């Protein structure tokens, strides 16, 4: 075996250093006192992955992030009750986070939604969805009944109709991540 050429080795080192830098930057932001984050990985054989952040803004929480590898169009986007993405189909994340026992809805339903009902994300032609939605009913603080910490963020194969129980007919689970 011959040694890799020095330029290739240097390029690999730079790539690894950048990767570590980006990961550290994301983790630092996610672990700040007023925010949390989840890294989503593919489920059900999809190619979907991404990041989601939660930032406390008064008594509401702003959700940001980017999901990639989607089919273009709308996909249900929820917080599920268990931070367990271990099952291949992500069913281990349980049902929607619903501490008030409400019916399923969407982020704009006043009083008539699961706290984890975030509506839909919308993927462009390249399969990327940028997220920016602000919701009530959840908080970033630990040790509160409405805390997002330790719950599961799930993206679904299909659109959430924001009315059908229990999950808006949004189909299978194609990405999942635990909020930290
Ligand atoms: Cu869901």
CATH class categorisation of the largest domain = Mainly Beta
Total number of domains: 2
CATH topology heading of the largest domain: Immunoglobulin-like
Number of helices: 1
Radius of gyration: 18 Å
Strand order of the largest sheet: 5-4-7-8-1-2-3-6
- According to DSSP, the number of beta strands is 8
Tell me the distance between the termini.
44 Å
Ligands bound, unique: copper (II) ion
Shape field: globular
* Average pLDDT level: 88
Strand content: 25-35%
Describe it for me?
This protein is an alpha+beta fold. The protein is built from 1 helix and 8 strands; from the N terminus they run αββββββββ. It folds into 2 domains: 1-30; 34-178, Superoxide dismutase, copper/zinc binding domain (Immunoglobulin-like). The termini are far apart. The structure holds copper (II) ion (CU). Copper (II) ion is lined by residues 76, 78, 80, 96, 154, 156, 167.
């Amino acid at each position: 075996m011959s040694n890799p050429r020095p330029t290739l080795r240097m390029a690999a080192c730079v790539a690894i250093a950048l990767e570590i830098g980006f990961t550290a930057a994301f983790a630092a932001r996610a672990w700040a006192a007023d925010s949390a984050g989840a890294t989503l990985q593919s489920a059900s054989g999809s190619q979907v992955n991404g990041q989601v952040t939660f930032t406390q803004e008064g008594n509401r929480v702003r959700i940001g992030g980017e999901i990639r590898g989607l089919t273009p169009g709308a996909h249900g986007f929820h917080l599920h009750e268990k931070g367990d993405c271990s099952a291949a189909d992500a069913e281990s994340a349980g049902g929607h986070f619903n501490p008030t026992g409400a019916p399923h809805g969407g982020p704009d339903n006043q009083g008539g939604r699961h706290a984890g009902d975030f509506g839909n994300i919308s993927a462009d032609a390249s399969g990327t969805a940028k997220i920016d939605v602000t919701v009530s009913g959840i908080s970033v603080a630990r040790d509160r009944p409405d805390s997002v910490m330790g719950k599961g963020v799930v993206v679904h194969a299909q659109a959430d109709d924001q009315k059908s129980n229990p999950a808006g007919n949004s189909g299978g689970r194609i990405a999942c991540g635990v909020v930290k």
